[in-house]
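QA checklist item 7 of 12: single-chain prediction sanity check.
[x] sequence parsed
[x] length recorded as 312
[x] structure emitted
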Amino acid sequence: MREERTELLQEEDGVSLGKYTLLKPLGQGGEGSVFLARDECLQRYVAIKRVCMAEEDREAEREEDREQGLKERSSKGMREAEHLRQLRHPMLPVIFDLFEDDRGARYLVMEYIQGMTLEEYIERNGSVQEKQARIWGEELSEILGYLHTRKPPVIYRDLKPRNVIVCLDGHLRLVDFGAADRKNYGAAAENRMAFTPGYGAPEQYGRNGQSIRADERSDIYALGMMLYYMVTGADIAKPPYTALSVQEYQPLLGDGIEEIIRRCIREDPAERYQLAEEVREDLARYESCGRHRRRPPFIRNVEKQIWLTEMK
């Protein structure tokens, strides 16, 4: 029944949910389905995310997993709505409404952000120039810094290319707060945590017998992997799941941005940047600070020729 209902929403235009008319699917993730819709009262486009399943969907769940799964989905959906309701930043979508249909499914209504995901952008363009990567890296550092300085701090926990929109004006917006949560001091670690392999920090996996956890430095790790993805075009979340050196992909890339990436993604959180603002400051200094300048063009050209010879 759940699959039939999803196909209905995906394949048929004009499905109504109260004053909203669903137009087309925008995305599908582990935390819910998102659709483009039109608010018939205010005559504007919105994005609607289903954050809790309907009663008919509940019957389709496996008996032993049903109650716990529904509780977790509902809780995540309400947390996402609560986070967005309290946050105000130009890089975040505005929340308009939260409602329940006659079947018992809950929907979150948000600002519709025109553009394409960073994943779609990189797939279309291959990678971005390091200047653009620096600008976008500063924007992501700024929004993470904003989240991390709330009281209590909000940890995004699942920063990845699919959750970032490249807008028509060239700036970035951060969407999908389904995995985000407030920093919890002293509470027992969760048994499970939403993250994306390749972008999730080692501590989010609970490696080497460590408890699963995430803090500001976990988001900084993901930020480093986002910068890596921008300048190389290599998505570590896809096969072969191996992060080669930035220079393996871009032999002419300046040393500075690779240095920033390496510091972001160190395995030990204590060895990473401790604040998103530190990352932003280093990226901002990138062009002017001597240690971040590119090598002279002649030297870089020789290095390129050597690299091309070795690749034959």
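[x] summary fact logged: The first strand starts at residue 15 and ends at 17.
[ ] second reviewer sign-off
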